[in-house]
Design a protein that fits this description.
Shape: elongated
Number of strands: 13
Structural class: mainly beta
Strand order of the largest sheet: 6-9-12-11
Distance between the termini: 83 Å
Oligomer: single chain
Radius of gyration: 29 Å
């Protein structure tokens, strides 16, 4: 008689008793396996609604990462209790020509359209920050001619001025120039 080694040709699935826990409305709250251990089966393309994960803040005790399709905050986005993006609209305090316009829903990104007559500078009003605001931006109408420099700061505003790309000297923003800006508190 000849003995030969062969690869197993059958697959064995371990079946263990599992109980489901339901609430009074018939919604499954979880599964209980051997020894009373709660568990969830592997999820593939399942939709989870109305769930609490570990009943704690993500990453509260250990570093964590998240990938979200949509992330929203009620009025501002905070990191360690400090506002990073405010939902308060920026305003024009002064400058930016006659009758400038500002459009934006938050401090993360907004647009200033320089008014008639043009202007060398302008002051953007912002919500109160712990120390001040760092504002950066671009004159997208004259992107190769003028760059924007922040020249003053306070807890509630930032002063911006235009400078020539070629000479580095102060230069007026033109009437109708569109300035795309972003502000970060520090």
């Amino acid at each position: 008689m000849t003995n030969k080694n062969s690869v197993a040709s059958t697959v064995t699935t371990q079946i263990v008793p599992v109980q489901a826990v339901f609430n009074s409305a018939g919604v499954c709250l979880g599964l209980v396996g051997p020894g009373g251990a709660y568990f969830s089966p592997p999820l593939n393309s399942d939709v989870i609604t109305g769930a609490t994960i570990d009943s704690s803040i993500i990453g509260a005790n250990i570093p964590a990462a998240g990938s979200f399709t949509t992330l929203s905050a009620s009025s501002s986005l905070q990191v360690e209790g400090v506002v990073v993006i405010s939902g308060t609209n920026p305003t024009i305090v002064s400058g930016f020509g006659t009758s400038p316009a500002i459009v934006g829903a938050n401090t993360f990104g907004f647009k200033v359209t320089v008014g008639s007559g043009g202007a060398a500078s302008g002051v953007v009003g912002l919500p109160t920050a712990p120390n001040g605001w760092i504002v950066t931006g671009w004159d997208v109408t004259n992107a190769t001619g003028i760059y924007i420099q922040q020249t003053a700061v306070s807890a509630t505003s930032a002063t911006l001025a235009g400078f020539s790309m070629t000479t580095g000297l102060a230069s007026n923003f033109g009437a109708g120039d569109v300035l795309i800006l972003t502000a970060s508190p520090y």
